[in-house]
Amino acid sequence: MKTPVLFINFKCYMEATGKNAVALAKKAEAVAGKSKAQIALAVQAVDIRLVSESVSLPVFAQHVDPVEYGSRTGHVLPEAVKAAGAKGTVLNHAENKRDNAFLEKAIARAHEAGLTVMVCAESIARAEQVAAFSEKPEFIAIEPPELIGGDISVSTAKPELITDTVKAVEAVAGIPVITGAGIKNADDVRIALKLGTKGVFVASGIIKAQDQEKAILDLVKGFS
Ligand code: G3P
Q1: For residue 28, which of 40, 20, 16 has the smallest C-alpha distance?
Q2: Contact 18, 50 (CB under 8 A)
Q3: Is residue 93 flagged as an active site residue?
Q4: Cα-to-centroid distance, 98 and ligand 1 (Å)
């Protein structure tokens, strides 16, 4: 996937579930078409097929489990996610955290299924640990949990967290770093890229906006 990239996290917001997920995905696709920006969509597992069949943007699962085909009731099987049309998966989002043993297995299973992986980290130390895994994710996303869903962006409130994470990850492995939490406008995006990230991970700034398409367009203006 080319960078810089805007990952839109649909979470479990009503405005981004089911038919609303498709509507939002189409708005994102329209912006990607106009702006040529790379946009990826992290949708709920049950919406992966619907969204993948409706738009050509890369679709990510919000989570997969480190399981194989078989007696695993209630788990999210990487192969099923891939077959539904996903290109990748997010792991360890602050709202769905897992320990490192789980993550190492889940990254390996996701790769076996042909999925690109973005692992979230809540701190520099966690990002370093993830970068040191033997099975490495394609992206690491640094998101300070306390700023998620708020009005103050990680770019303005914690620039040093971004630069220090980029440095720390670079020292261990050349994995591109993404950042998110409170990102709302083009300036937040511009700052995040200037601080060394390869993209941003955004939810409420888009999903809760009165005009979602305008919000997406404004964000990708930060790429140029
Ligand atoms: O995954 C991105 C997300 O956690 C950031 O949420 O609402 O602060 O953009 P938000």
Answers
A1: 40
A2: yes
A3: yes
A4: 18
Which residue(s) pair with 5 in the sheet? 38, 199
The secondary structure element, H or E, covering residue 169 is helix 159-172
Q: Is the dihedral of CA 102, 48, 87, 90 positive or negative?
A: negative
pTM of the shown model: 0.98
C-alpha separations of 119 from 33, 73, 84, 136, 201 in Å: 27, 24, 21, 9, 12
pLDDT tens, 28-62?
999 999 999 999 999 999 999 999 999 999 999 99
For residue 170, give the H/E element and its range: helix 159-172
Number of H helices, E strands in the chain: 10, 8
Q: Which of 143, 146, 160, 213 is catalytic?
A: 143
User: Hunting for tokens 């980290």 — which residue is that?
Assistant: 121
For residues 1 and 116, is the Cβ–Cβ distance under 8 A?
yes
Rounded Cα–Cα distance for residues 70 and 118 (Å): 25
Q: One-letter amino acid identity for 134?
A: S
Residue 59's beta-bridge partner residues? 41
Q: Which atom of ligand 1 is nearest to the CA of 93?
A: 1
